[in-house]
Amino acid sequence: MKNKNKITIIALIIGAIALGGGYLYCKTNIDKPFKVKISQNEIKIIGWWGATINSNNIKSVDMINPPLDVDSQDMGGKIGNKIFGNVNLNNYGKAKCFVENASDKAIEIKTKKENYILNFSSNEETLKEYNKIKKNLKLEML
How far apart are CA 135 and CA 127, in angstroms? Predict the structure, then answer.
Protein backbone atom coordinates (compact mmCIF):
# COMPACT_ATOMS: atom_id res chain seq x y z
CA MET A 1 0.00 0.00 0.00
CA LYS A 2 2.87 2.37 0.81
CA ASN A 3 4.44 1.75 -2.63
CA LYS A 4 1.15 2.66 -4.37
CA ASN A 5 0.96 5.91 -2.42
CA LYS A 6 4.55 6.78 -3.33
CA ILE A 7 3.91 6.00 -7.00
CA THR A 8 0.75 8.12 -6.95
CA ILE A 9 2.57 11.06 -5.36
CA ILE A 10 5.47 10.79 -7.82
CA ALA A 11 3.02 10.62 -10.76
CA LEU A 12 1.19 13.71 -9.46
CA ILE A 13 4.45 15.63 -9.08
CA ILE A 14 5.62 14.66 -12.58
CA GLY A 15 2.22 15.62 -14.02
CA ALA A 16 2.28 19.00 -12.24
CA ILE A 17 5.80 19.70 -13.52
CA ALA A 18 4.82 18.73 -17.08
CA LEU A 19 1.69 20.92 -17.01
CA GLY A 20 3.60 23.83 -15.50
CA GLY A 21 6.39 23.49 -18.06
CA GLY A 22 3.90 23.31 -20.92
CA TYR A 23 2.09 26.40 -19.67
CA LEU A 24 5.34 28.36 -19.32
CA TYR A 25 6.51 27.25 -22.77
CA CYS A 26 3.26 28.42 -24.37
CA LYS A 27 3.12 31.65 -22.38
CA THR A 28 6.75 32.51 -23.16
CA ASN A 29 6.59 31.64 -26.86
CA ILE A 30 3.18 33.06 -27.71
CA ASP A 31 4.44 36.48 -26.67
CA LYS A 32 7.12 36.28 -29.37
CA PRO A 33 5.84 37.46 -32.75
CA PHE A 34 6.19 35.00 -35.60
CA LYS A 35 8.31 35.83 -38.64
CA VAL A 36 7.48 35.50 -42.31
CA LYS A 37 9.91 34.81 -45.14
CA ILE A 38 8.54 35.40 -48.60
CA SER A 39 10.09 34.11 -51.81
CA GLN A 40 8.72 33.52 -55.29
CA ASN A 41 8.12 29.87 -54.42
CA GLU A 42 6.71 29.97 -50.92
CA ILE A 43 5.64 31.81 -47.81
CA LYS A 44 7.37 30.45 -44.74
CA ILE A 45 5.87 31.30 -41.35
CA ILE A 46 8.36 30.78 -38.54
CA GLY A 47 7.41 30.63 -34.90
CA TRP A 48 6.22 28.25 -32.26
CA TRP A 49 3.39 27.32 -34.64
CA GLY A 50 4.73 27.51 -38.20
CA ALA A 51 3.81 26.65 -41.78
CA THR A 52 5.15 26.64 -45.31
CA ILE A 53 2.76 27.65 -48.08
CA ASN A 54 3.82 26.65 -51.59
CA SER A 55 2.99 29.41 -54.08
CA ASN A 56 1.65 26.87 -56.61
CA ASN A 57 -1.11 25.97 -54.14
CA ILE A 58 -2.29 29.54 -53.49
CA LYS A 59 -5.73 30.38 -54.90
CA SER A 60 -6.08 33.91 -53.48
CA VAL A 61 -4.57 36.47 -51.11
CA ASP A 62 -6.88 39.11 -49.62
CA MET A 63 -7.06 41.63 -46.79
CA ILE A 64 -9.92 40.96 -44.36
CA ASN A 65 -11.46 43.22 -41.76
CA PRO A 66 -11.75 42.62 -38.03
CA PRO A 67 -12.93 41.37 -35.72
CA LEU A 68 -11.81 37.75 -35.94
CA ASP A 69 -13.95 35.61 -33.64
CA VAL A 70 -13.07 32.02 -32.76
CA ASP A 71 -16.07 29.71 -33.04
CA SER A 72 -14.25 26.47 -32.17
CA GLN A 73 -10.70 25.18 -31.77
CA ASP A 74 -8.87 22.19 -33.22
CA MET A 75 -5.20 22.16 -32.18
CA GLY A 76 -5.22 25.92 -31.78
CA GLY A 77 -6.66 28.61 -29.59
CA LYS A 78 -6.99 32.18 -28.49
CA ILE A 79 -5.05 33.80 -25.68
CA GLY A 80 -5.90 37.43 -25.10
CA ASN A 81 -6.15 38.99 -28.54
CA LYS A 82 -3.89 36.42 -30.25
CA ILE A 83 -5.26 33.53 -32.29
CA PHE A 84 -2.98 30.64 -33.21
CA GLY A 85 -3.13 27.21 -34.78
CA ASN A 86 -6.13 25.47 -36.33
CA VAL A 87 -9.41 27.15 -35.44
CA ASN A 88 -12.86 27.69 -36.90
CA LEU A 89 -13.56 31.41 -37.26
CA ASN A 90 -17.00 32.98 -37.50
CA ASN A 91 -17.42 34.39 -41.04
CA TYR A 92 -14.23 32.70 -42.36
CA GLY A 93 -14.50 29.01 -41.48
CA LYS A 94 -11.55 26.71 -40.79
CA ALA A 95 -8.14 28.36 -40.90
CA LYS A 96 -4.62 28.02 -39.64
CA CYS A 97 -4.09 31.28 -37.77
CA PHE A 98 -1.06 33.39 -36.95
CA VAL A 99 -2.90 36.40 -35.57
CA GLU A 100 -1.15 38.93 -33.34
CA ASN A 101 -4.25 41.09 -32.83
CA ALA A 102 -7.77 39.82 -33.58
CA SER A 103 -9.01 43.43 -33.63
CA ASP A 104 -6.79 44.46 -36.58
CA LYS A 105 -6.95 43.74 -40.31
CA ALA A 106 -5.49 40.43 -41.43
CA ILE A 107 -4.22 38.65 -44.53
CA GLU A 108 -6.24 35.67 -45.72
CA ILE A 109 -4.36 33.20 -47.92
CA LYS A 110 -6.57 30.55 -49.50
CA THR A 111 -4.86 27.47 -50.86
CA LYS A 112 -6.18 24.35 -52.55
CA LYS A 113 -6.33 22.54 -49.20
CA GLU A 114 -6.18 25.08 -46.35
CA ASN A 115 -6.83 28.67 -45.44
CA TYR A 116 -4.31 30.77 -43.53
CA ILE A 117 -4.98 33.99 -41.67
CA LEU A 118 -2.16 36.14 -40.36
CA ASN A 119 -1.55 39.64 -39.14
CA PHE A 120 1.19 41.52 -37.40
CA SER A 121 1.61 43.98 -34.56
CA SER A 122 -0.06 46.83 -36.49
CA ASN A 123 -2.33 47.39 -39.49
CA GLU A 124 0.57 49.18 -41.22
CA GLU A 125 2.89 46.20 -40.84
CA THR A 126 0.16 43.82 -42.01
CA LEU A 127 -0.43 45.94 -45.13
CA LYS A 128 3.33 46.07 -45.79
CA GLU A 129 3.57 42.25 -45.61
CA TYR A 130 0.44 41.87 -47.76
CA ASN A 131 2.03 44.02 -50.48
CA LYS A 132 5.27 42.00 -50.23
CA ILE A 133 3.35 38.75 -50.68
CA LYS A 134 1.48 40.05 -53.72
CA LYS A 135 4.69 41.43 -55.28
CA ASN A 136 7.08 38.57 -54.53
CA LEU A 137 4.68 35.80 -55.46
CA LYS A 138 3.51 37.73 -58.52
CA LEU A 139 -0.10 37.24 -57.49
CA GLU A 140 -1.53 40.36 -59.08
CA MET A 141 -3.88 38.17 -61.08
CA LEU A 142 -5.47 36.76 -57.90
Answer: 12
